Amino acid sequence: MQATTSSRKNPEMTRQKILNHTIQLAAEKGVSGVSIQGVADLVGVSKGGVFHHFPNKQKLLEEMIAELLQRLDGFVDQAIAKDPVAQGCFTRAYIEATLQAEPDEVQLWSAISMTILTEPVLNNMWMRWYQARLKRHKQTDDHLELKILRYAADGVWLTAFAEIDDPNETEHMKQELIQRSYFKSSNKQ
């Protein structure tokens, strides 16, 4: 009963806990592993408590993706702010985010990837985010070489995610892709 009383006093904190535990479940089990009851059990609220914040599972998953994309935006913006070279800055940030070895970031990407691969509505949210970032960075990252590097990062991620590759090789590939993003641009695209 303590969790319920605490939840009533701070609904925003409860909402955030629900989102965080949804991310955890999606990262571990994919979309099919996310259930309202499972999230409620992890948070320590009733199913009704989850429904108070999210009217259904689909809305919960959509909010989860929105939360993850917001976190991803922050990560990408920080990486770009630290990058002294404008050309390719988004691509390097994308590669860093995609092939991040930190546990929290791996969980974030796993949750996004597991979800967007299986849910068209959520895939559309991802694509809108990605297209908006490409549009935003058109002057610095609209080059075929950089597009190929982003695609390669996705392939390396898939290989690492499927545990076909070892983490040292993934790190080596990440560094190689980042290094290749520093090239002399010609007008050919």
UniProtKB/TrEMBL annotation:
InterPro entries named among the record's database cross-references: DNA-bd_HTH_TetR-type_CS, Homeodomain-like_sf, HTH-type_TetR-like_transc_reg, HTH_TetR, Tet_transcr_reg_TetR-rel_C_sf, TetR_CgmR_C
Domain HTH tetR-type: 12-72
Record's keyword annotation contains DNA-binding: yes
Superkingdom of the organism of origin: Bacteria
Cited Pfam families: TetR_C_28, TetR_N
Signal peptide positions on this chain: none
Keyword terms, alphabetized: DNA-binding
Residue intervals passing through the bilayer: none
Molecular function (Gene Ontology), one example: transcription cis-regulatory region binding
DNA-binding region, residues: 35-54
Database matches in Gene3D superfamilies: Tetracycline Repressor, domain 2
Protein name from the UniProt record: HTH tetR-type domain-containing protein
Species name: Acinetobacter rudis CIP 110305
